[in-house]
Amino acid sequence: MQQVTTVNVNGLRAAARKGYGAWLAASEADVVCLQEVRAEGHQLTDEIREPAGWHAVYAPAAAKGRAGVALLTRREPEDVRVGFGEPEFTDSGRYIEADLPGLTVASLYLPSGEVGTARQDEKERFMAAFLPYLRELREKAAADGREVLVCGDWNIAHQEADLKNWRANRRNAGFLPEERGWLSQLLDPADGGYVDVVRALHPDQSGPYSWWSYRGRAFDNDSGWRIDYAMSTAGLAQRAVKAYVERAASHAERWSDHAPVTAVFDV
User: Fold this and answer.
1) Domains of the chain by range and CATH?
2) Of 73, 157, 182, 187, which has the highest C-beta tally within 10 A?
3) What is the pTM assigned to this prediction?
4) Is 172 annotated as a binding residue?
C-alpha cells in the first residue's frame, strides 16, 4: 500500500502552532504534499523544516509571505523539479514535483483568482500553460513506465456536488463555467487523461468537502468546497482503494481552513 496526503496548511508557521506537527508525526502517509507554506526555510524551526523520518523539498514564492509548496517523502526522491517550464510561474511557489520509483508526484497551488481582477487573469494564464504541461507529463511518464499523481489545492470546484452553496457561486471564481470546463478537459480520457481519485471512489455523494471558510459557521454546518484534489494517471487510479478527508472533530481543533485529503493505493 502507498498512502499520499495533500493539505493546504494556510501558513506553515501558523499551522505548526496549532497542531500540524502532531498531525504529521501521527501520519501514516508515504508522501505529504503541502500548499500555501508562506515561509522560507530559515523561517521554520528545524523540526518543522526537516521533520524526522522525512525528506523535505520546498519551492517558496519570490513574493515574500505568499504561496509556497512542498513535498515530504519517506524515500529520498530520485529527482526534484520546481515549476513547469512557464517563466512567469517558475518562482511563484505554486508547483513542485519529484520522481520516486515508478511515480512522479507533485504538489500544486493553483491561483485562486477573483472575477474582474488581475488575479483572475493570472489564474487563466496559469491554467492555459498548465494543461498542456500535464498532458506532456502524462505522455512522458507513460513512455518511461511511470505513473503521475498531482495533488494540491486546485481552487476550482468541478461539479455541483463539490460545493454546498453552488447556486450562489455560479459567477464567482472557483466555480466559473470556464474553470469547470478546464477541469473537464483535464479529466477527459481523450484529452488530459487524468482521474479525480476521490470522486472516482465516491461518485454519488456531495463532497467530501476539504475547505471551509473561517467566517460564520461554515465548518459547523459543513458548508464547504471540495477544491483539494489528487489527480492521477489512469493506471494509478485503478489501484486506488481508499480516499478520504481528514476532517477535524471540531472547529477548535482545526489547524488550517483546509483539511488533509488522503488517497491509498494498492501498489
Assistant:
1) 2-265 (3.60.10.10)
2) 157
3) 0.97
4) no
